[in-house]
Amino acid sequence: MIGTSSALIGDRWSNHGSGRWPPVVVWASGAVLVIIFALAAGFGLRTLLGDGDAPGGAGPGGGADVAPATSLAGQVIVLDAGHNGGNGAAPAAIGRQVPAGGISKECDTVGAQTDAGYPEHAFTFDLAERTARLLRARGATVRLTRTADTGVGPCIDERARIGNDLGADAVVSIHADGGPASGRGFHVIAPALSPDRANAAILAPSTRLATTLRTTFGRATGEPLADYLGQQGMTIRSDLGGLNLSRVPKVFLECGNMRNPTDAAELVDPAWRARAATGLADGISSFLGIPPASPTPRR
Ligand SMILES: [Zn+2]
């Protein structure tokens, strides 16, 4: 802006140098222009700065818009990136049965992948890390259930225990589905009463977390609600160890269908994942009573 106006004034100098206006007059009019442009630029800069903490505002690339650093202070959030990069090579380890809330289930599974071979474990880990960065910038204490994408497990009961032992305020298990190729969209899975009836206390808050996340994730990504299962982007299940064993509010988020070409094109896109992270962080923030940075002035 400022560079442009200087160039413009320079042009005026040379245009008028041929004698129509005395140089002093030209200089004066140029000076007035400089002042006008400077004022305009300053105003524009202030406007930009004022919008700096706009929400989902996810600027170009959707990156690091951050709310005031103390807003989630004291809140403990667990992000559970589904599956793991080493699971495929460890069938015995992940295939063993573990307690899952009145039923037993496999320790872990390999997960889905796109037709082109982008694996769910890589997607979930990337999204968990992005979301953790946003939440930490907002002041939260964030723990991931795995810190690399090359290991095996942990088993679903251990994943649940991590949230329980920390007394987490919210836990989100991040996944992408391997549904029918014709179906697309995302959905949230909330807990139903587990077979051992031990997760009763988390049903209400988990449902609230689910509905909040459904709103913010859809808004941030533009991803439609799943059209191939559930109702309005939601399913309620009692067959998932991660939900049956949780004693703290927890949901699963299936971010899209890896087998659907339209969804797959989004899931592999880092810019889309940045928006997805914003949607996740905003949903968790709202659930915890701290609205994500909003368009409304905060001061
Ligand atoms: Zn999964």
TrEMBL record:
Q: Which domain of life is it from?
A: Bacteria
- Positions of the MurNAc-LAA domain: 160-285
Question: Which organism does this record belong to?
Answer: Frankia umida
Keyword Secreted among record annotations: no
> Could you tell me which Pfam families the record lists for this protein?
Amidase_3
- Name of the protein in its database record: N-acetylmuramoyl-L-alanine amidase
- Alphabetical keyword list: Hydrolase, Membrane, Transmembrane, Transmembrane helix
Annotated membrane-spanning segments are: 24-45
Extract the CDD domains matched here.
MurNAc-LAA
InterPro entries registered for this protein in UniProt = MurNAc-LAA_cat, N-acetylmuramoyl_amidase_3
